[in-house]
Design brief:
This protein has one helix at about 35-55; strands at about 60-65, 75-80. By secondary structure, it is an alpha+beta fold. The protein has a domain at about 30-80. The chain has a two-stranded antiparallel ribbon.
Length: about 90
């Protein structure tokens, strides 16, 4: 039997760009963006934790990870589910 639940959805995009400036004599990406390997894990975890805190402040909200097919090193998708206001 098909699920008869009606679901409305909206998206809110928060795009974070992380930059690192180097001196003029820097060789460029030859090091494989070594600076990013130090930053990326902490950045993703901080974003996840901040969204979880915000979601917990909303009555009836639940948060869970969602995957849209992109690597976790490039995108973090979190689904915040709410119960309708009565």
């Amino acid at each position: 039997m098909p699920d008869e639940t009606y679901v409305e959805q909206r998206e809110f995009t928060l795009r974070i760009e992380v930059r690192c400036a180097f001196p003029a004599d820097y060789d460029g990406e030859a090091d494989g963006y070594a600076w990013w390997s130090d930053v990326e894990p902490a950045t993703a975890e901080i974003v996840r934790a901040a969204v979880a805190i915000l979601a917990r402040q909303q009555p009836g909200a639940r948060i869970r990870p969602a995957n849209r097919g992109r690597p976790a090193t490039e995108e973090v998708t979190l689904l915040v589910e709410r119960e309708p206001n009565e």
